Amino acid sequence: MSEKYDLTIIGGGPVGMFAAFYAGMRNARVQLLESLPTLGGQVQALYPEKMIHDIAGYPAIKATDLVSQLAEQMKQFPIDVALSSAVTNVSGKMGDFTVTTVNGQVSHTKAIIVATGSGAFEPRRLAVDNAGDFEGKQLFYHIPSLDQFKNQTVLVAGGGDSAIDMALMLEPVAKKVYIMHRRNRFRGMEHSVDLLKASSVTIKTPFLIKALAETPAGQLNLSMKEVRGTGEETLVVDALIVNYGFIADNKVIRNWDVSPSMTNQLFNVDTEMNTDVPGITAIGDTVTYPGKLGLIASGFGEAPNAVNQLMMRLYPERRSPLHSTTLFEKQAKH
Ligand SMILES: Cc1cc2nc3c(=O)[nH]c(=O)nc-3n(C[C@H](O)[C@H](O)[C@H](O)COP(=O)(O)OP(=O)(O)OC[C@H]3O[C@@H](n4cnc5c(N)ncnc54)[C@H](O)[C@@H]3O)c2cc1C
Questions:
Q1: What 3-state class would DSSP assign to 223?
Q2: What domain range is 161 assigned to?
Q3: For residue range 162-209, what is the model confidence (pLDDT) as tens digits?
Q4: Do 84 and 37 meet the contact criterion of CB atoms below 8 Å apart?
Q5: Which among 17, 31, 42, 121 is the best mutation to test ligand 1's pocket, defined by most ligand atoms within 8 Å of the CB?
Q6: DSSP secondary structure code for residue 294 in this structure
Q7: Residue 136 pLDDT more than 80?
Q8: Ranges for the FAD/NAD(P)-binding domain (predicted)?
Q9: CATH number reported for the structural domain that contains residue 140 in this entry
Q10: Final residue of a domain: which of 206, 229, 244?
Q11: Which of 283, 244, 266, 216 is closest to 46 using CA atoms?
Q12: What is the whole-number distance in angstroms between the Cα of residue 188 and the centre of ligand 1?
């Protein structure tokens, strides 16, 4: 049997990351399971370049920098992090829960903190029948590494900030970059749109991708159709990167064997962040209670609450809660 964790945190958004750090401070054996290939939740997936102005202690911080700081903070403790690991089932009871992930990994934990936000994210996929045949070969939804597109002809589909950022990031690396959007106006911030217009990226608007086919040389033949018009074009590219945003869905949680009560897909919690299943707490955007705010700052406040009260139940002999200075001194003596 694998090691039994004290706490398993499900969801590696900002709130789950802070909870993992805090659990480390409490000397808990902790694992953090995240469905996406990267940590940071909505902050990293939806608005990495946005400035956030309502994090205590930071007059302003870029979203992606906040995630990096949280990752640094977590690194101080031996936290087991598993990415691309959506939790598909939780069974058992307080002291002995079994957690199963989409890739079949099974782990055991005494208690659980659910920090799943509005659910597991998935990229919004291209609505072309045979798109799945090209995924991972010529069609991508993330940029795993810029080098992969070196000297290639690439088309980025999408009109928001992250699509524009992708096109601008690829410009110095790729042979040729196109960006295609279904409207003439981009949704990105004015400054990003100005940079795009001043770049060598060729803009194709208002177009939609209608069909995909592979050329004999293994490239992608894109058929594009003008939106509300009759124009049609074809373009041969090495890679198509689709950036149509993400969809979040909590339905996987509804299939868990243990099922804490929910209202409108959000976990009902008390003032200590307990759900109605002993040993399972929930924090961040995934909870509801009177006065709940869907803000990072609120989730950061809920995390120590959940960790401390679970640790108090698991280890009633330990004092709780302590101030961080005392906790770090205790860690140093270990
Ligand atoms: C455009 C935009 C701008 C915003 N601006 C601000 C702002 O300026 N200030 C502010 O305070 N808030 C802002 N917010 C809200 C803020 O982003 C959220 O409050 C915050 O992200 C909540 O964090 P979280 O960790 O609870 O959830 P999330 O960030 O949603 O993270 C949850 C994580 O859990 C993972 N997950 C879900 N299901 C599973 C599963 N079954 N197994 C494993 N992992 C799973 C998801 O993949 C995700 O990574 C903004 C939100 C948006 C969309």
A1: strand
A2: 125-244
A3: 899 889 989 999 999 999 999 999 987 788 899 999 999 999 999 999
A4: yes
A5: 42
A6: -
A7: yes
A8: 5-309
A9: 3.50.50.60
A10: 244
A11: 244
A12: 20
Domain count of the fold of the chain? 2
Amino acid identity for residue 150 in this structure: K
Q: Indicate if ligand 1 lies below 6 Å from the C-beta of 252.
A: yes
Q: Name which residue sits closest to atom 48 of ligand 1, judged by CA.
A: 41
How far is 223 from 232, CA to CA, in rounded Å? 7
pLDDT at position 246 is 79
Q: What is the pLDDT of residue 1?
A: 45
The annotation status of 34 as a binding-site residue, yes or no, is yes
Instruction: Dig out the tokens for 298 from the structure.
Output: 């609120």
Give the nearest ligand 1 atom to 44 CA. 29
Helical packing angle, 161-170 and 190-198, nearest 10°: 30
Task: Say yes or no: 185 and 89 in one domain.
Answer: no
- Report whether pLDDT(144) > 80: no
Tell whether 218 and 237 lie within a shared domain. yes
Sheet holding 266-268, edge to edge: 262-263, 266-268, 287-288
> Are 280 and 216 part of one and the same domain?
no
- Say yes or no: 29 and 72 in one domain: yes
Residue 42, marked binder? yes
User: For the stretch 37-60, what's the b/e string if a residue is b when 16 or more beta carbons lie within 10 angstroms of its beta carbon?
Assistant: eebbbbbbbbbbeeebeebeeeee
* Phi-psi domain of 133 (left: phi exceeds 0; alpha: psi -120 through 50; beta: other): alpha
Q: Which one of 219, 244, 269 terminates a domain?
A: 244
Cβ of 82 closer than 6 Å to ligand 1, yes or no, is no
- b/e map 261-280, b = 16+ CB within 10 Å: ebeeebbebeeebbbebebb
CA–centroid distance, residue 326 to ligand 1 (Å): 30
